[in-house]
Records
---
Amino acid sequence: MAKPKNVDEYLHKLGDHFARPILEQVREIIHDTAPQIQEAIKWGAPSFEHKGLMMSMVAFKESAAVWFHKGALFNDSKNLLEASTENTKAMRKYVLRSMDELDVEGFKGLIHEAIAKNESGAQVDGFNQRDQKYDHSQRLEDALKNNPKAQETFKALSDYKKREFVEHIESAKQDATKERRLQKSLGMLEKGLGLNDKYR
């Protein structure tokens, strides 16, 4: 299915999905509360920006959700937000299973908080910081010395793509798994491929 070009198209594609009127109301409240907010489609979903990305809204099978990209920083006085997992650093979601669950005043408060955080430039501590333990793999480096073809491909990769290989190998918990991933990586490099090229 083609990705929607704009928010109107996203909502139209929902057809008679129960989340459609909820998200239409969410959109209306956003623009009524803060007319300066701009709409965009990011990652296939409606997103809302003001001095950077603030929030997104998505229809799921059994719920609608509004994602606040810096929600972990909010006061959230009405306790409307939740994290997807205990390891989620920055984003928080407001889950809505029916129109009755939409707390309009509480939601407006979240919108104002999102604007304030973006205008202040606030960031969640540690969010988006590179994990330096995946900057280097001695295992991969040693193997490349004995494989000129793979080494040639690896040297030509961007730093980001090099890190993908390092993390793929070194994030394994068992040495045997690391070795299997190493051999797979060498095979891909011999063919001139990056780790995730098939997904790009």
---
Amino acid sequence: MRLVDQLTQSLPIVLMGLLALLTYWLVKSMPAQEPSNNTDTPRNGPDYTMEHFTLRVFGQSGVMRHQIEGAGAQHFPDSAHLDIQNFKMRSVNTQGRISTASSDRAEIRNSDTELVMMGNAQIVRQAGSRMRPPNAATKSAATKEEWPRLTYNGEYLNVNMDTEQARSHKPVVLTRGNDRFTADQMELNQLAHTIELSGRVRTMLAPDKTLEPPSPKPVKP
């Protein structure tokens, strides 16, 4: 349950925040489309293209919060999707947690509510730590909070913002620290906080180092 809770809280949130940021920037950056006199003929080719673009978003303190890169991007009006080549993202939240995502290709579909990563898809939340300040109400001292490295690896990942679900019909590898899950398919539901792994599922759970082994009993002579 500890592993499932961490994965469901981190995996889709990173991608959904990225998708909202990327689509907002594209809408603001792209020129307005000129009206066409011929509305009956669909346009099969792209109406917008970009090459070697980088988007950086900074917080109020001047610290970079998000960075998105792509070797190229094309928007296709007939299918209303955006195709990005060599997709890369880096994000730092307010707690200092660093997350990255990358894939050979990425598509934004269905009116900017669906992100599909294809080819060497990877999501990583880096390991880290921070000091929690003391709480005067509970009279608790300052404590150190640590979070392990969390990763997703596979050839495919589909994230839907409307349903808050992530799925893959191809083999996946999920890790949290030294814990490792592999499966042929995955269904992740953010609202229900569940992960369904199917096919050939294998699990390796590392022992909790915070648990001390029981003291050996003295041997009577």
